[in-house]
């Protein structure tokens, strides 16, 4: 049975800290309303494959994750990855990941790979989602 993909905010609440994650998308970066993401298949995305191979070679622990959960709707999995690396400029593992993904000025080396930090304070805004039965009740009224 395949593992469940957790939302990134759930992971942050479980870790009780801010978390790092990656998003991979097609060439156009429009809003979801413009449907630029439709038809995107993370399983054949060569950029994502390259990043995953690099993470494995560098022994960076990661897992698939969903975006920040929303009560306003949902979408299919688009290949997001949680990086089990604390956001700490002084930590060597963070520096290795940052330097692989970003130029020294903070811009992304590949504009189609996005590197995000989700603070715990933001993740906690969805803590009510963790209540037993929350999503089942939500689905009944969707």
Describe the overall structure.
The protein contains 5 helices and 5 strands. It is an alpha+beta fold and 142 residues long. It has one domain. The chain is globular, with a radius of gyration of 16 Å. The model has no long low-confidence stretch (mean pLDDT 87).
Task: Summarize the entry for a quick read.
It is built from five helices and five strands. With 142 residues, the protein is an alpha+beta fold.
Question: What gross morphology would you assign?
Answer: globular
Unreliably modeled segments = none
Task: Find the count of extended strands (DSSP E, 2+ residues).
Answer: 5
Strand order of the largest sheet: 1-3-4-2-5
Largest sheet: 5 strands, mixed
Number of H- or I-type helical stretches: 5
Kindly, what is the distance between the CA atoms of the first and last residues, rounded to a whole number of angstroms? 27 Å
- Element string (H = helix, E = strand): EHEHEEHEHH
Domain unit count: 1
Structural class: alpha+beta
Task: Considering the chains and any ligands shown, give keywords for the structure.
single chain, 142 residues, alpha+beta, 5 strands
């Amino acid at each position: 049975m395949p593992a469940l993909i957790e939302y990134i905010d759930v992971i942050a609440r479980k870790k009780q800290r801010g978390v790092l994650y990656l998003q991979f998308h097609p060439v156009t970066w429009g809003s979801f309303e413009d449907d630029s993401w439709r038809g995107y298949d993370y399983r054949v995305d060569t950029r994502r494959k390259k990043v995953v191979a690099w993470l494995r070679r560098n022994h960076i622990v990661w897992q698939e994750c969903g975006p920040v959960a929303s009560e306003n709707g949902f979408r299919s999995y688009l290949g997001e990855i949680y990086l089990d690396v604390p956001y700490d400029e002084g930590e060597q593992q963070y520096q290795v990941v940052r330097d692989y993904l970003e130029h020294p000025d903070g811009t992304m080396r590949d504009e189609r790979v996005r590197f995000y930090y989700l603070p715990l304070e933001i993740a906690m805004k969805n803590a009510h989602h963790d209540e037993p039965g929350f999503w089942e009740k939500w689905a009944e009224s969707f």
